[in-house]
């Protein structure tokens, strides 16, 4: 297997790290990074909600995403919308009706695979806050060139390859392996998509192991 | 219920057991989905005889449960009720009649921003929680307004630890200082002592010794005492 720019194998993810519960203002928080991509996510809730957002049978989920330079508001809004859909699947909103759960994400550094980093960070922050969750989700991004599938790409890799496409998958481990959310940028064939799914289903287990380790260590604090 | 998982750390969404004919009680962090018992929070699965299961986790936000004792701040007067902030979803309702010996002519004299120690009587998911400042026999027994003093927030696990009968940190502090303390399970602790210095010392002692065992906790408290003198 040919090594990548940062000496990784094609199927190897970057090192993951997380610091839980540092932000005292929020009910749950995490500073999470995959390699050099770093995000800070804080969770508030369930708390009081305005009447126009109130839902009688479930909690309202609001997401706010802020980039470093605040120069691309469209990107922020797209991320907010995608995250909201995933989190509404994940959070057990029926357990706290007529309330609001606010998730705030600050992007501290973007070095590729931003979407996956945000999703994984939100999962950790929600677990830290003690909000009831239906099932955990794990997110992986793939970079696809002519003949290779590279997992968890960095900015350098994406910039150097001109003709590429990307697939971001959010997977869960419910009863069977299921896809919660999937986003493709550029053209991908079905075979390559299936291959990404296959690699993703293996990679999500190591993400889950990392999450379990971090949350268990945080529990003993 | 899977007995191998008792005492181990579980993640949300894990299937823990099937519903069968044995009746069991499920508590914090467990839900029933599709006929099986699933965890909804991460934490350690606990069991108390004969039939109670729950997940022990630490969080800051409180979910009101009937019968628990809480500390609240009065935020508003509405009709014949006070609206009290417990740190929950919506403010709780404290009726004027929720005090011992209260009648239409004999009203309580509380104002906005007063601190009260109360007991939750009604809490379901749909309406506001209701609290009263008296026990089941309609006597005060420690409930009611907490005058003076200083109130601060902490995590739910810490407040539960201080409600246990022989808390080591409190007894150690009690040997050296005189103070009054009220603990609400909604993560709030109220302290009243002779001087501001003592209050600050006790607050720091409680907050800095979270999660420590007895010997390191004593070291920390001794260090705080030395720095104060």
TrEMBL record, chain A:
Main location: nucleus
Residue ranges of every copy of the Exoribonuclease phosphorolytic domain listed in the record: 12-132
Keywords assigned by UniProt, alphabetized: Exosome, Nucleus, rRNA processing
UniProt family annotation: Belongs to the RNase PH family.
Pfam families listed in its UniProt record: RNase_PH (PF01138)
The protein's name: Exosome complex component rrp46
Coiled coil regions in record: none
TrEMBL record, chain B:
Localisation: Cytoplasm; Nucleus, Nucleolus
One Pfam family from the record: RRP40_S1
InterPro entries xrefs: Exosome_RNA_bind1/RRP40/RRP4, KH_dom_type_1, KH_dom_type_1_sf, NA-bd_OB-fold, RRP40_KH-I, Rrp40_S1
Keywords: Cytoplasm, Exosome, Nucleus, RNA-binding, rRNA processing
Annotated K Homology domain residues: 149-197
Principal location class: cytoplasm
Gene3D superfamilies membership: 2.40.50.100, K Homology domain, type 1, Nucleic acid-binding proteins
Family: Belongs to the RRP40 family.
PANTHER family: EXOSOME COMPLEX COMPONENT RRP40 (PTHR21321:SF1), PNAS-3 RELATED (PTHR21321)
The protein's name in its UniProt record: Ribosomal RNA-processing protein 40
Organism: Anaeramoeba flamelloides
């Amino acid at each position: 297997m040919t090594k990548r720019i940062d000496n990784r194998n094609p199927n190897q993810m970057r090192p993951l790290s997380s610091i839980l519960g540092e932000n005292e203002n929020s009910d749950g928080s995490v500073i999470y990074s995959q390699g050099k991509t770093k995000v800070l996510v804080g969770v508030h809730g369930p708390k009081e909600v305005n009447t126009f957002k109130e839902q009688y049978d479930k909690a309202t989920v609001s997401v706010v995403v802020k980039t470093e330079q605040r120069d691309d508001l469209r990107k922020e809004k797209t991320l907010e919308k995608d995250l909201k859909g995933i989190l509404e699947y994940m959070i057990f909103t029926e357990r706290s009706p007529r309330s609001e759960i606010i998730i705030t994400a600050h992007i501290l550094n973007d070095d590729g695979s931003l979407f996956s980093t945000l999703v994984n960070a939100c999962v950790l922050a929600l677990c830290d806050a003690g909000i009831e969750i239906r099932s955990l989700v794990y997110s992986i991004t793939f970079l696809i060139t002519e003949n290779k599938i590279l997992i968890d790409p960095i900015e350098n890799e994406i910039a150097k390859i001109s003709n590429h496409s990307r697939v971001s998958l959010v997977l869960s481990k419910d009863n069977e392996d299921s896809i919660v959310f999937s986003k493709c940028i550029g053209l991908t064939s079905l075979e390559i998509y299936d291959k990404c799914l296959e690699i993703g289903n293996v990679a999500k287990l190591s993400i889950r192991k990392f999450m379990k380790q971090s949350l268990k260590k945080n529990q003993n604090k | 219920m899977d007995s191998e998982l008792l005492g181990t750390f579980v993640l949300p969404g894990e299937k823990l057991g099937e519903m069968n004919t044995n009746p069991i009680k499920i508590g914090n962090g467990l839900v029933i989905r599709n006929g099986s018992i699933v965890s909804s929070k991460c934490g350690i699965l606990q069991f108390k005889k004969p039939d109670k299961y729950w997940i022990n986790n630490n969080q800051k936000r409180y979910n009101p449960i009937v019968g628990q004792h809480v500390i609240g701040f009065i935020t508003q007067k509405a009709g014949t009720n006070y609206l009290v902030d417990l740190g929950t979803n919506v403010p709780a309702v404290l009726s004027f009649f929720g005090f011992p010996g209260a009648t239409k002519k004999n009203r309580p004299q509380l104002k906005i921003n007063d601190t009260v120690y109360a007991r939750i009587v009604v809490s379901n998911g749909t309406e506001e929680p209701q609290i009263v400042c008296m026990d089941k026999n309609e006597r005060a027994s420690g409930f009611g307004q907490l005058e003076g003093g200083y109130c601060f927030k902490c995590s739910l696990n810490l407040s539960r630890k201080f409600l246990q009968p022989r808390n080591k940190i409190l007894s150690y502090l009690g040997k050296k200082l005189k103070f009054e303390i009220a603990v609400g399970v909604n993560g709030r602790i109220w302290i009243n002592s002779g001087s501001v210095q003592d209050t600050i010392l006790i607050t720091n002692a409680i907050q800095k010794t979270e999660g420590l065992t007895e010997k390191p906790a004593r070291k920390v408290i001794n260090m705080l005492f030395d720095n104060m003198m």
